[in-house]
Amino acid sequence: MFADTSRGEKRTRRFPLWTRDTARPEGGGRAAPGDAPAPARQWPLIAVLVCAGLGLLLTAFDLFRVGTILVGVGLLGGAVMRWVLPSVGMLAVRSRFTDMVTYGILGLAIVLLAMMAQPDPWLKIPFLQDTLHFTVR
Question: What pTM does this model have?
């Protein structure tokens, strides 16, 4: 189709049969200078993992609601960092938009479900309760 004059090869608009490389997600560079120690270069990911780990530890010590909310808040914090910071290291997995939406939806769902957990829910959403009773009958 299109002739590549520099190498004498033909270029097509078709996708290659074999992928040789993957593009690094935007914002996937180091979050600190290269001469910084490894944990400092990946501090956004470490912050999310510490928050989620602390939440799991609290859940293991029978503080289910608080621990689960902390896991969700960690994911929401990851979404905010992905939106605000230009470079977040390994916290960048996909495109910026996809990461923000994924972390945000999962974090919000975990927080809402933790707040609605029985017994004595902190948050009551009537139409969800009616839907549950309609499907369980």
Answer: 0.73
